[in-house]
Write a structure and sequence with these properties.
198 residues; alpha/beta; Rossmann fold; five-stranded parallel beta sheet; four-stranded mixed beta sheet; 8 helices; 20% strand
Length: 198
């Protein structure tokens, strides 16, 4: 199989991290790309595992040196993907999972047209607000995040798959199935090897 990026987007609080963590435990042919951010770590988050927590100066230097595959300012923080994080996994034959916003997804799809794209949808805005409040985020950001969520859902038709996260167990199963199906596509196989089977 030829490795390819898997792009996953969703509004903040829709459950993408929980779903992806569950998928990673069962599938070793995929790995999450660790993105960089200038926001502060949330409780329990670790540098180099959840994110690369950089200073604004570090992030801006990486941009100037052309080391970022894509980056954006989301709410009040920078987020971005170091190039070497993606290319390193592809060279090993591992499908990199990129958890990025809709703007970043468009950029990555242009660079890697073979990428598969998935949008995770929350059950409702009411449920999304409840989840955001449960994370102990800055309450001033909640209304901004909900307005952003409404705009992000409008980008749904640019994605290959829509995954409704109203049941976590089911959502994990569906995500696993999407990845397996994409890995089995004929265009992702080494056809010479397959056709030369004896």
């Amino acid at each position: 199989m030829k490795a390819f990026p898997i792009i996953i987007s969703s509004p903040s609080g829709a459950g993408k991290t929980t779903i992806i963590d569950a998928v990673l435990k069962r599938n070793k042919t995929v790995a999450r790309v660790i993105t960089a951010t200038t926001r502060s770590p949330r409780k329990g988050e670790k540098d180099g595992k959840d994110y690369h927590f950089w200073t604004i100066k570090q992030f801006e230097q990486a941009i100037k040196k052309g080391q970022m595959l894509e980056w954006a300012q989301v709410h009040t923080s920078y987020y971005g993907i170091p190039k070497k994080s993606v290319d390193g996994l592809l060279k090993k034959g591992i499908c990199p999972i990129l958890v990025i916003d809709v703007q970043g997804a468009r950029t990555i799809k242009k660079i890697y047209p073979q990428a598969a794209t998935v949008f995770i949808i929350p059950p409702s805005l009411k449920e999304l607000k409840k989840r955001i409040l449960g994370r102990n985020d800055n309450t001033q950001d909640i209304e901004l995040r909900l307005e952003t969520a409404k705009k992000e859902v409008q980008e749904l038709d640019h994605y290959d798959y829509a995954l409704l996260n109203d049941d976590l167990k089911k959502a994990v199963e569906v995500m696993s199935g999407i990845i397996t199906a994409e890995q089995c596509r004929v265009v992702r196989q080494d056809l010479k090897k397959i056709k030369n089977l004896k």
